[in-house]
UniProtKB/TrEMBL annotation:
Gene3D superfamilies: Nucleic acid-binding proteins (2.40.50.140). It comes from the Eukaryota. InterPro entries: NA-bd_OB-fold (IPR012340), RADX (IPR040893). Signal peptide: none annotated. This is RADX protein. Coiled coil: none annotated. GO terms for molecular function: single-stranded DNA binding. It comes from Chloroceryle aenea (American pygmy kingfisher). Pfam families: RADX.
Length: 306
């Protein structure tokens, strides 16, 4: 069929009512958002953002309401989509922005693709990877993997991806989203090592829309976390208080979930796998810890400093 591109959409969207089909690859995926309120009678008040791209650049795509339970889990990072009968809206200005793996990619930030059950009823097709043709010019998924030895030089709020062997995982904890609200964030602390430093990655992992992964993070699993943000506490000892926290677009993968993921081709991921082959499983098992209370960042040594 006659296709359009994201670049053409941005130039012509105001003058059209109907748009030609789009062929795009998913590069980023946000967590699922529930926006239900008692007074609003919506059956499925869900929303999820994706960043999708073709040869011309990258644009946000929003999945609405009952399409979320139907499609959210199938639309993985790397999935190729054929979209028909979608709507185009001006962008929501306050949403979070993932950091693209390819810094050269053009970003279309003024508009977004809106996928709905009606007005118009969107038709979504997933194209299997083996049927994707090189001449379609779809970009590959790119990552920003760092090693633990590189972390100490990175600035606050820097975006990165990591892979490591889990040595500690804490219990799930809750924090209030707002001071007097009834909603909570669920999170847990974890440590992961990659052989490049004596220090582990300290990870603050909030529950993303992957409960089956979040609940099964165990010591000795290979953990991949994407779109993590560097958090630096400015104290006397900066190396002690640098950790990584999840963002709205973070994805978490553990042993058993890695097969077929785009990051398996990344050089730093391959180097990590080579390093794990040189390690004794029994020795690493002795150093692992699970559960317990983990106060972090740690309080100062004395009341005077506090």
């Amino acid at each position: 069929s006659k296709l359009t591109s994201l670049g053409q959409l941005e130039m012509t969207w105001r003058s059209r009512l109907h748009f030609h089909p789009l062929l795009v690859r998913v590069l980023h995926k946000s967590r699922l958002r529930y926006y239900g309120k008692p007074e609003k009678k919506l059956d499925m008040p869900y929303q999820a953002y994706f960043e999708v791209a073709d040869g011309s650049g990258m644009m946000s795509m929003v999945l609405w309401n009952s399409l979320c339970p139907e499609w959210y889990n199938s639309m993985k990072v790397g999935t190729v989509l054929l979209l028909e009968q979608y709507a185009i809206k001006t962008s929501y200005p306050f949403k979070t922005q993932p950091t693209p793996g390819d810094s050269q990619m053009k970003r279309f930030a003024t508009i977004e693709i809106s996928l709905n059950v009606r007005d118009p009823p969107t038709k979504i097709s997933i194209i299997p990877e083996e049927m994707v043709k090189p001449e379609w010019g779809l970009p590959e998924v790119k990552y920003r993997f760092i090693t633990r030895s590189e972390l100490d030089d990175l600035p606050n709020n820097h975006s990165c991806d990591i892979i490591g062997l889990v040595t500690f995982v804490g219990r799930a904890e809750r924090a209030r989203k707002r001071e007097h609200g009834e909603d909570f964030w669920l999170y847990r602390w974890a440590h992961a090592i990659d052989g490049t430093s004596n220090q582990p990655f300290i990870l603050e992992l909030f529950a993303t829309s992957q409960p089956d992964v979040f609940e099964h993070i165990h010591p000795m699993t290979y953990l991949v976390c994407t779109q993590m943000r560097v958090v630096r506490e400015f104290t006397d000892n900066p190396s002690r208080t640098v950790y990584l926290t999840t963002s709205n677009e973070s994805q978490i993968f553990i042993t058993g979930w890695h097969k077929g993921q785009p990051y398996t081709k990344d050089t730093k991921v391959k180097n990590f796998i080579q390093w794990t082959k040189t390690q004794s499983e029994a020795d690493q098992m002795k150093k692992t810890v699970i559960g317990g209370y983990y106060p972090f960042p740690r309080p100062p040594d004395s009341f005077l400093k506090y």
